[in-house]
Specification:
11 strands; 36% helix; two-stranded parallel sheet; alpha/beta; 19% strand; Spore Coat Polysaccharide Biosynthesis Protein SpsA, Chain A
């Protein structure tokens, strides 16, 4: 199930209500307050930040998030940085920040496992907390925007940010070719999965531990198409996904921009393979699995162990 909302034109995140855009299938959506009732205890939160060679960008993000939530969030809030085959000084940078903010922790995988692989590993910690989510290491999503997602978790199993809904605030948009490839990928995802989600790839998501625990064994995409894997697994299991407009600033140094063709090819391949996994034809196509394996190898795509 998917619910989608948009803010009024004069509300960028601090208003008192949201306007309903769409809720599918035919269910009525509640009007959502921006925070849970004051009488409810604040849930514990674990924020995952996957990182690959982010020594130049991750420190401001960690300090901003840790400082913001220490000051504005009454519950337990921890940050887990999942290092994915870093060859630079990212580990030392994170450890330096952790000396000032003990809520920052690190999990280091010396061999590359992909962004999706890092998130799959990080999501294994879901049973330890009430809510678990993730953002990118570059700080494109400000802490206040992620805090807003947390404020709606009482109304859905998973809450995601969107850069394409009315009310989204884009301080600096992506280059035109990134926007073009993003919309092409969205069209492919929509045609294959019919999730009716405007922005599957926005790296600002948070979910309840019960939802992640139920679908974790079905997470098998280690590359940038991981978000599609996560969202389709949730909707396929009848968990409710709520999409909200978010705040976003495109940051310099994107790994995707530097390898756009290869990243796009891998994402397309992973998306098609995911569709086949949920297809009644999947077992009949097993003799052709080697073709996909060969393509993954040729593209040097990260992979995770398949689950049945």
């Amino acid at each position: 199930m998917l619910a989608r909302y948009s803010l009024p034109e004069n509300d960028t995140g601090g208003g008192a209500s949201c306007r309903r855009l769409r809720f599918s299938p035919s269910h009525r959506a509640p009007r959502l307050p921006l925070s849970r009732p004051v009488t409810s205890p604040a849930p514990s939160v674990l924020l995952l930040i996957p990182a690959y060679n982010e020594e130049e960008r991750i420190e401001p993000t960690l300090r901003e998030y840790a400082g913001y939530f220490r000051a504005h969030y009454p519950g337990k809030f921890e940050i887990l940085v999942v290092l994915n085959g870093c060859r630079d000084n990212t580990l030392a940078v994170v450890q330096r920040v952790a000396k000032d903010f003990p809520e920052v922790q690190v999990e280091n995988f010396p061999a590359p496992i992909g962004k999706g692989g890092a998130l799959i590993e990080g999501l294994r910690h879901a049973p330890k907390v009430d809510l678990i989510g993730y953002v990118d290491a570059d700080g494109a999503t400000p802490p206040s925007a992620f805090h807003r997602l947390l404020g709606h978790t009482a109304y859905a199993d998973c809450v995601i940010g969107s850069r394409w809904l009315d009310g989204a605030v884009l301080h600096q948009a992506q280059p035109w070719f990134r926007r073009f490839t993003s919309r092409c990928f969205h069209a492919i995802v929509q045609s294959l999965f019919w999730m009716d989600i405007a922005d599957t790839q926005c790296p600002a998501k948070v979910a309840h531990r019960h939802a992640i625990a139920a679908i974790h064994d079905h997470l098998r995409i280690a590359d940038l198409a991981f978000d599609v894997n996560l969202l389709y697994s949730l909707t396929h299991a009848n968990f409710k996904v709520l999409e909200l407009p978010t705040e976003w600033t495109d940051k310099l140094g994107s790994k995707v921009t530097n390898s756009l063709f290869r990243s796009s090819a891998i994402m397309f391949l992973s998306t098609v393979r995911l569709r086949l996994v949920y297809s009644p034809l999947y077992e009949r196509l097993q003799p052709l699995r080697w073709v996909g394996d060969w393509l993954y190898g040729a593209l040097r795509a990260p992979t995770v162990k398949r689950t049945k």
